[in-house]
Design goal:
The complex is a heterodimer of chains A (about 350) and B (about 260). With about 350 residues, chain A is an alpha/beta fold. Helices cover about 35% and strands about 20% of the residues of chain A. Chain B is of the alpha/beta class and about 260 residues long. In chain B, strands 2-1-3-4-6-5-8-7 form an 8-stranded mixed beta sheet, sandwiched between helices. Classes of the chains: A alpha/beta (about 350), B alpha/beta (about 260).
Chain lengths: ~350, ~260
């Protein structure tokens, strides 16, 4: 099965019943498969007039209590940014799939890229924190999409599936389990304040149509949900909580594969380039080379880097000019070698081997 | 008068300026909603950004105050995900016709079952009086200091051409007519668009020779012409004055609607 189709199947298995989006290469197969399957599953598919409307319809649907998603690529992702901030501010569970292509601008519609990794983390205005998953196989397109929905429900944040064109259009064997674990948002206890957080820093969800009479606004709001845009205290407490509810659990959220933890040289990868690293390690079995493959990039769990106590060098191949390499540099004393590759083609094992030999 | 049960008493007083026309439109809308017999728990008010869009914050139902121009796109998601809810969108001329123009066209085309009440004050009131797509030709605003050099948008003509099932225009002077039009909009399946011209004494009136609040309301009264009368004048070969506010029901039809339970 194709990666994008596997993503749609994962969404259906996770309980997604609303898709609002706009066609864009190389993500369109996600929408096309949802257009076929969602009506049969009792859900709704709508092709909106642009990506701004796509994410808006998803947020609207989510407030009725439905699990909702959209899928896009670079230019559409840029258009969604304002409403993604709205979803953060209003704590709306939703899943945004980005099958990354080459940018900036229209760039390379049919070629792979990873240039949106920082945009998904910082692209909307203001301070916030989100969750981003990076699949490296067709199976993970399914598994991590299911996981994305569960995280969105648990943490009431937009969760990004930051795949790339290679994984999205690749065909591999996919095993669809009979059942998958599903999380559902915790309903608000009637009578309690709609935006007053519980001990886990999250408020219960007051779905529309249930009699809560909740006001939801992108303005800075108090625990009643009412606009309170000029109070420095209310704003600071709200934004700090929105960040903390994600960042405070980043170690427990971490998803990764870890190879050779005693290595002195360690590859750190995510998405398609991880496959090249795995191939290289397979080709040179005698060498003690470490590999940290991140399946969840944001929030970045820097403690994972400490799992390689002997590491002197981290090598980070990415299909961008070093977006996550820079994040790693913030956290380690040793050398960080960024191996960027633009243009859409995957790093070859030979190219990574040359980097390995060059630094020794 | 609307019963107080529909208002969030703990949010009052509101932020609207003295003399603002928005309160009249909110009152007309809630009267129509009450006449429909809708319950608060089944009703959702949605809005974008601007003075008009603050209205849902004062209404004691579920309400979604969204991003600038996008209210209709959010409302489309709510409508399709739960066709049992009643949805009213409050918007303004800047929110709907400028930044939200594309969503407006497509909501009309889809004929999605939503009622839109547009408070058209012909100005960006919230940000201090900049020109909007409905600022009349020649009118003064902070961004048209020498008079607007652009023709104003005919919102009802746009809604009609794009496919809405119900389209009407009244003003804040025409309380009974406006309430009745909103009620018809709520009753009509599909997309209903009701434009309500409202006075903005703070940012429009005082720059455009309406020295008192009542002056602009009187202007609305004296310049309103029923659509039927204008049609009769045209049939007789008479010239319809350019500055009249054409009012009444532009269209009521039964195109297939989206978001209605079969």
């Amino acid at each position: 099965m194709q990666g994008n189709t596997a993503c749609a199947e994962g969404a259906l298995a996770a309980g997604c019943r609303f898709f609002g989006g706009y066609p864009i290469t190389p993500s369109t197969e996600v929408a096309e498969h949802m257009a076929i399957k969602l009506p049969k599953a009792g859900g709704v598919f709508i092709q909106m007039e642009d990506e701004i409307a796509g994410i808006a319809s998803v947020i609207g649907a989510s407030w009725t209590g439905v699990k909702a998603m959209t899928a896009t690529s670079g230019p559409g992702f840029s258009l969604m940014m304002e409403n993604i901030g709205f979803a953060v501010m209003t704590e709306t569970p939703c899943v945004v799939v980005n099958i990354q292509r080459g940018g900036p601008s229209t760039g390379q519609p049919t070629m792979s890229g990873q240039g949106d990794m920082l945009q998904c983390r910082f692209g909307s205005h203001g301070d916030y924190s989100v969750i981003a998953l990076c699949p490296a196989s067709v199976q993970e397109m399914f598994d991590l999409t299911v996981h994305a929905f569960n995280l969105a429900e648990r943490f009431r944040v937009p969760v990004f599936l930051m795949a790339d064109e290679i994984i999205g259009h690749m065909r591999e064997k996919l095993v669809i389990p009979d059942t998958v674990a599903r999380d559902n948002r915790r309903p608000l206890i009637p009578g309690s304040l709609p935006f007053k957080a519980d001990a886990d820093l999250m408020p219960g969800f007051p779905a529309f149509g249930k009699g809560y009479g909740v006001h939801v606004t992108g303005l800075t709001h108090d625990e009643r949900g009412y606009p309170c845009a000029t109070s420095p205290t209310v704003h600071e407490e709200l934004v700090k909580r929105l960040v903390a509810k994600v960042e405070s659990v980043r170690d427990s959220l971490a998803m990764y594969d870890l190879v050779n933890p005693d290595a002195e040289t360690v590859f750190v990868s995510y998405g398609a380039p991880a496959r090249t690293v795995m191939q290289l390690l397979h080709d040179i079995p005698g060498e003690n080379i470490g590999h940290l493959r991140l399946k969840l990039v944001w929030p970045f769990a820097e403690s994972l880097l400490g799992r390689f106590p002997n590491a002197e060098t981290f090598i980070v191949p990415e299909q961008n000019l070093g977006q996550v390499a820079r994040e790693i540099e913030r956290h380690v004393d040793g050398e960080v070698i960024s191996v960027p590759k633009l243009g859409g083609a995957l790093h070859t094992p030979g190219e990574l081997k040359a980097v390995l030999e060059g630094h020794r | 008068m609307t019963s107080e049960a529909w208002l969030r008493q703990d949010r009052l007083p509101h932020i609207f300026c003295a003399g603002c026309g928005n309160g009249t439109v909110i009152n007309c809308t809630l009267s129509a909603v009450e006449a429909m017999g809708w319950q608060r728990e089944d009703t959702v008010f949605v809005s974008g950004i601007g003075c008009s869009s603050r209205a849902p914050g004062y209404i004691a139902t579920d309400s979604l105050h969204t991003t600038h121009g996008r209210a209709l796109a959010f409302a489309t998601g709510i409508r399709l995900a739960n066709p049992d809810l009643h949805i009213v969108v409050f918007t303004g001329d800047g929110d709907l016709a400028a930044i939200g123009g594309n969503h407006f066209i497509h909501a009309c085309r889809r004929n999605i079952d939503i009622t839109v009440v547009c408070m058209n004050n012909m100005i960006y009131g919230m940000t201090g009086g900049q020109g909007s797509p409905t600022t009349p030709y020649g009118a003064l605003s902070t961004t048209t200091p020498y008079g607007s050099g652009e023709p104003a948008f005919d919102l009802c003509g746009l809604a009609m051409a794009a496919g809405a099932n119900y389209v009407a225009r009244w003003t804040s002077y025409h309380v009974r007519e406006l309430t009745r039009a909103i009620l018809t909009g709520l009753e009509t399946p599909g997309f209903s668009f009701i434009e309500a011209l409202v006075q903005c004494p703070t940012n429009y009136g005082r720059r455009n020779r309406f020295r008192q609040v009542a002056d602009q309301i009187e202007y609305f009264r004296s310049h309103t012409m029923l659509i039927a009368r204008a049609e009769r004048m045209k049939e007789r070969g008479e010239q319809v004055p350019a500055d009249v506010i054409l009012s009444g029901e532009f269209v009521r039809r039964n195109r297939p609607a989206l978001g209605v339970r079969p």
